[in-house]
Give the backbone structure.
Amino acid sequence: MLSDGTARDRTIARARLKFLESAELPAAIVPEGIRNSWQRSKYLGICTDEVVVPYQPDYDRESRLVRAATPVLDRLERALAGSDACVIVTDRKGWVRDRRVGEKRLSAHLDRVHLAPGFNYAEQFVGTNGIGVALEERRPNVVLGTEHFNERLQDVSCAAAPIRNTVTGRVEGAMNLTCWSGPARTFMAALVQEAAADIERVMYEFSSSQQRALLEAFQQVTHYGDRPVLCLGQDLVLANSAASTRLTGDDHRLLHEAAAELGHAPRTRKQVQLTGGETVLVRCRQVDSSAGAAGYLLELAFTEHPSDEAHTHNRASSRSRSRDEQDASRPWPLPGLAGTDPAWNAVSRRVSRCARERTPLLLHGETGTGKSALVHATHALTGAASAPVILDAMDPRTAAPKADLSAALRAAPAGPGHALVLRNVDAVPSEQGPAVARALDAAAAQGTWIVGTLHRAQGVPEPLRHCFVEAAAVPALRHRLADLPVLVDCLLQRVGDGVECAPEVLPLLRRHDWPGNVRQLHFALREAAAGRRTYRIELRDLPPSLHSAGSRSLSAWEASERDTLVQALLEVDGNKLLAAQRLGISRTTIYRKMRTYGITLPARG
């Protein structure tokens, strides 16, 4: 006679097979959390007979999470010595950071299924497993034997619980206990939650001592004087009013990167270009605590451009701007454009003011971020009847050795109500620089709004720097993904009335880095809309490149191989065996290529 546990395992195993073969929901005997995870795993097309996970051998072995977990794992390792149990800690993204195993046989098995430091056990790669479900649902769970989505994991049972930062509430990682499969062990969930709580207490001690150290350093420096001061810790940002009114979240990121370089050289100063175009001189020192490095203390000095005297007057006038213009958190709508991200709002305000006041402006940002669109929209808001005239220093007609770019600039309509845009200012030939500068000055003197655009503000040739009184940075799309829904709606209106995206499309768009920014998003949506099979854009309609999450640049041959593989998978509704047969390769090769290119596709039942 079968034991209750064995009978249950067989029932769940049959329910899983039936679920994989059809679209029928799993039987009620399957716990709700497991059913939900199976559905997510099937949707993502997770392999059921092979563990295919990414590997990252280089990681911070001295991170706060690892240091807090080490004494807890040491204690558990001693208690579990010789037993068929293993304890594992992962970070918030599912990367395994430490593992302690009680017996060699279990250790060998875990190595075979890649449940080891450096590998990623997030649900999106492995399917239903204790670590993945705990991180996905942000709550403790137990996954027993046959409940695993991948059959190679069904020899073990596991319990996992998220590890939270008790100060911020953010999930920092997961604690996992794995044993050989057998009768349900009621102690697993309790033990793993206790271990997670122990790690959280150690992390709190680290956090509190580090935050106290940062606060003391901040108070000592700000007690006397009102110069801009910023303290940056892992979970804490302290700024006095002199700094907070002039910095954004993206500025904090740039300054943190600079501080990481200067932390061990306290007497060194460094100039940092902020997202709004301002330059700040940074003096930094690392703040230490009893728990290790707590963060950085930065003393800031906002400086003018060393070769541009006109900036002095501009900085003085900028301090007198209205409060509405300084409040980057409030929306600043522009015709034909969309977004409420603070950095986008800030640059929209600045460009609008420059258009209204006819202030010569240098607009910098990555290709495709919308620099020209900003100029068109803000110029239109001034009531101008004519569109801006745009000349490109990289245009073959103006970039040739004998071409006269300055003559083309002088020939452009000038005067109040006109705007003249010089794209790729950094590409102006050095021998033409003085003449181009004179042409821009002449147009500005007649009331023309002068705008220069380029990728990085530092690339302006010396003869042209005085031509631009202000500078503004347009944020990359990957830095304003919160705007993605309204951007998609706005761009689809240009494609055609009535076109919309299926609900599952936006999550895939958010996972993309968008190196081509808004322009790339527009092209992708236009291509998807042109090839759609219904009234809305489905996942299968998106270009093959969007189904790949690889972080490195691909060669032309690799991109072609990736697109061919994605297209084959889409044509067979994600069935990897059929796709392999069509391409004349093995299913193992399909899985390997999908892992190489970071391809994720939904399964279609």
Q: What stands out?
A: The mean pLDDT is 82. The chain is about 40% helix and 15% strand. Residues 187-222 form the longest helix (36 residues). The two ends are 35 Å apart (CA to CA).
